[in-house]
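During the no-cost extension, the postdoctoral fellow (Dr. R.K.) reprocessed legacy sequence entries with the updated structure-token encoder. One reprocessed record is reproduced below for audit purposes.
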Amino acid sequence: MPQWWTEPALDGTRFYRGRSMKGTFRLGDRLRLELVTLDDVRPGDVVVYASDYKGHREELVHRVVAVTPKGLVPRGDNNPCPDAILVTADNLLGRVTHVERGGRTMSVAGGQRGLFHAWLWRSRVALWRWTKSVGRRPYRRLRSSGLVARLWQPPVRRVRIVTENGLVVKYVCDGHTVAEWWPQQNRFECQKPYDLVIPRPERAQGSFESRQEL
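Re-encoded structure tokens follow.
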């Protein structure tokens, strides 16, 4: 079986399976498609197309990174290189417009915005791999320098939630919780590489915290 595919649902939508579009889709996401022609698709759009894998027909969902006279060049947002197969009029099944997750329906970025989204995700992955390869000390120096915070300002917002154990503040970016702060316990947890731009709350009296939505 391939590592990346979709599973058709009865209503014509698709359930996402795999890892190649990590950062855009999650396991079990329901994808809404619209019927389009090749001429309708722009670089940056996410499409579903059919592919033969060891004699079996599979459906893959990837982002179009280029348009050529022979067809569309697809690539997973989490993949290091484009697919070997082109998307043509014969195997194009549709363009993904929305994703349903946890009772919410969100639009899927396409065009130049979609290309930027994919580039940003791969940049985060590359940064994380680099920090793992060079060790913790350079990473800590990079974090304390504040350089990344000046170059990268992700749309992070704070959500305050009152639980039976007290107040918890969640930092949410693109629908994902990237950090949590428990004021009573003075405990702060932040995913990499977001810890390069989100300081610990007790130190967060600067511009980054003041810009966020409560």
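The helical segments are 111-134, 136-145, 147-151, 207-211. Residues 1-5, 203-214 have pLDDT under 50 and may be disordered. The remaining legacy entries will be reprocessed before the final report is submitted.
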